[in-house]
Amino acid sequence: MHRIAQRLAGAYTITATATDDEGVALTLTDPVTAVVTDGAGTVVDVAADPSAAAGVLSLDIAYDEIPLLDTYTVVWTAPEGTWRTSFELVGGFLCEIADIRAEPLIRDGGTITTADLRKARTKAEEHIERLAMCAFVPRGARQTLIVDCEPFGALTKLTLENVTVRRVYSVTIDGVALTAPELAALTVYSYGTIVRESGWPDDSVVQVHYEHGADEAPGAILEGCSRLAARYALKNQLGGRRTLESTDMGTMRVTYGTRAGETGDADLDAAIADFGHRMPVVG
To answer: Is the pLDDT confidence value at 117 over 60?
Structure first.
């Protein structure tokens, strides 16, 4: 899923290409509409006249219309068909596109597209944070929990799957949202526990939308993400079975992660072990 850095002013420009079943761009006729929904499926914006020039759909969304870190979906509709675009609003990246392009492994003068580098960066970020079991920049998450009070009686604590919890945006219990005072009364611990002194109703379905992650990633993680993204971008160019690349700088071997899940980059693996929240294996 395409990731977009959160803005504090201005607007986000979301684009899509309207194509037929064979991938051929279409010329659209009016009316063209765009409906934006958040991760819960709630409509946050409706545009009656998005740009649709030469089959390229474009929509500007004001920064304050999607102020929370979350996944969003745009559904574009025209007489010729319907198209869907999804993106994730994040608090930052673990490396910049320019950093990846400057890596010696793929220093190529721009033959790898920016779109492919973005995909490689997202893949690298997901790999690093999965191994570290934490986010190194602010991210949004939604989680559904089923309350089972047995055999403890009243249950006041719920535990989220992510650590470094920064803020709880909203909580619903069986579809009913907590009020602002009820939300403010929750005690939220950074390690992922939410305490409600009045208790969570037994057998209820609790849905939590929250923000988690560090303010800023350690330098070793930033540098390692750039290297890992470069490897992924090069792998896409070489194909999955090739491990060598020859350039005017010489011949370079491309390494990949092991079955145990490491990245294959010793310095990055050490940084993940140092700064992550992965629990030790016992036994």
So the answer is: yes
